[in-house]
Automatic annotation (TrEMBL):
Pfam families: Acetyltransf_1 (PF00583). Residues 8-162 form the N-acetyltransferase domain. GO terms for molecular function: acyltransferase activity, transferring groups other than amino-acyl groups. SUPFAM superfamilies: Acyl-CoA N-acyltransferases (Nat) (SSF55729). This is GNAT family N-acetyltransferase. InterPro entries: Acyl_CoA_acyltransferase, Bact_Acetyltransf, GNAT_dom. It comes from the Bacteria. Keywords: Acyltransferase, Transferase. Signal peptide: none annotated. PROSITE patterns: GNAT (PS51186).
Amino acid sequence: MSTPTHEEVIRPMTAADDAPVAALIRECLKAADLDRPGTVYFDAGLDHLSQFYGAKPNRNYFVATRDGQVLGGVGIAEYDPTHGVAELQKFYVHGKLQGHGIGKRLLRHALDYAQQAGYQSVYLETYHTLKTAVHVYQEFGFTSLSGPLVTAQHQLMDQFLLKKFA
């Protein structure tokens, strides 16, 4: 029997992560009072994210784990492939672990993946009450847009940001 390392690992999600990741996302949205229509809370595929992220190249969802427990996750998928734009999706960290750097490590991992996958920029949608998240995005070079690049994926979202790779 192997001994737990107690170290955080960031890795691509597997089907075994579907239930804990869906539970994490719902828990975070509920805590932020965003467990309502117009958010990912009601996405039909939320319970099977590994299928979505595994269906095409240049798409992936990463989980941060420690001792087999999912601490957080973040996805990258095509948004506007014609213009080389990826979307940062479903980025959540357990509430009790926020502020400990896990989110920043996940975000850096996702952005590195997007750049290596050949995307020229990364787009995201969020909500104005998530001020800490918006601050972190800005720290990582995201700039605010006046509206969605194309059409908002989740109608309740009202903050749109873009990061261009140099």
